[in-house]
Amino acid sequence: MAEKATRELEKMQLQEKAKIKYKEWLKKKRAEESEKKKKEKEKEKEREAELQEKKERSEKIFKEWLHNARNKARPVLNGYGYPHGKSTGYHDGISYPAPAYCNPIPWKPIHVPPPKEDSIITMKNSKRPEYSQSHRSAPMVIYKPPNNLCVGSLCRKQL
């Protein structure tokens, strides 16, 4: 009986220790979760602050652009219905609209390197130029119609 009582007492002590350890573990887990939630909230606040700052900056830049766009020089109205900048009230078919865009960089031709030695034209004793093998093309064929073509009554007169 005494042994049973000591065993039950040991079991009770083990259960109490287990409950205490479980409570400590649970406390620790809850503290970690609360810390994690705090960090997430801080990150969310930082994101919102950044978005707000971006929005304010973009609105400021847009207002500056709008202010500058009002003061920007307008193109001369030489388009349809505005010859010499004055409205005629009708479409002028002769005049073209003023160009909306003019390229500030002028056009420059593409540099082509000089031909290689293979394509040099050589002259033989004859006065015709002879091209190198790489540029030789099919011989030119000239088509001559025959002289005996007849159309209708003309054919009888020639015979």
From TrEMBL:
InterPro entries: CCDC34, CCDC34/181
Leader peptide range in chain numbering: none
Domain of life where this protein originates: Eukaryota
Coiled-coil domain: residues covered: 3-107
Region (Disordered): 28-57
PANTHER family the record matches: COILED-COIL DOMAIN-CONTAINING PROTEIN 34, NY-REN-41 ANTIGEN L15 -RELATED
Name this protein carries in UniProt: Coiled-coil domain containing 34
UniProt source species: Apteryx owenii (Little spotted kiwi)
